[in-house]
Amino acid sequence: MPLNRPALLLRTGSRAVQDARAWVRSVCTEIDRTDLVDCAEYGVSELVSNALFHGAAPVTIRLRGTVDHPRVEVRDASTEPPLLPVPLALDDEDEVLLTVGRGLSIVASVSDAWGADIDSAGKTVWFTPAAEIDEGDGVEGVITGPSGAPPKPERLGTETVEVSILGVPLSLYRGFQHHFRELRREVRLLSLAHANDYPLAASLSSLFSTLERQLLDGLGHGQLSGVIGPGEGRERETADLHVRMPRAAAETMRRFLDMLDLIDEFCRQERLLVLARSPEQVTFQRWFLGEYLTQAAGGRPTRWTGTQMTGNAS
């Protein structure tokens, strides 16, 4: 059953809300959560309307979270925090937009949890649909991202080690960056919205924060030398990365490698609505992170040749 449906790009105008309602009804049926349909439709109508009136194109909708706690996300290109929608004069027969103008209190009343995650490229407003409407004030939303204080990484000590990672294939490295950010965001939102149900998520979120600088800032702040692909002017295909990292970060990376395998297993069991890594991704990440571990322990670097793909992935 396809739990990882591609994000739906919404058209502008009132038809977008109708499309979003049909989409969320379909995905709730796919994951056998028809008990959530009513609240999911109310919530997505409000968020899509808000994005269209106060956000910036493109506007997309997608499903994340878990089967037990599916999370509907509406993303637009504006970095402004979500605002209350502007009331519209509607035709009495237009049942699609009946929730417009009643504000994010609608989302709060039909959610188990909701909030907004803001980054440099836009914002994602999300909610986990409840099984029934709360007649009171509903749950309080939470804003995450640049507008809030980022978690401080663990102090890893002052002793450092020079690490050379040779022949890094940049296409796989960029895929690793994307995978890392998706997983980090996923576990952060799970830890915020459903900490009691997913106690591991809080530990993972802290671990991701600790590793982010070492893993993701390396190419930007390390000393980079590379090999240009055949043909003048071709984009760089591989690179040698030279960085200085805290020696104590090696143990954190070892924990992270173990956690990646555990996350893959959760994904295969459909306990996370994200894709498990491909064999190619597994092999590359084990080599890439393993170079930090090997050299922190005094070993010599091993250049990526592509032959690491043979027989090493699980």
Automatic annotation (TrEMBL):
Xref: Pfam families: HATPase_c_2
Name of the featured protein: Histidine kinase/HSP90-like ATPase domain-containing protein
UniProt entry keywords in alphabetical sequence: Kinase, Serine/threonine-protein kinase, Transferase
UniProt entry tagged with the keyword Cytoplasm: no
Phylogenetic lineage: Bacteria, Bacillati, Actinomycetota, Actinomycetes, Propionibacteriales
Span of domain Histidine kinase/HSP90-like ATPase: 16-128
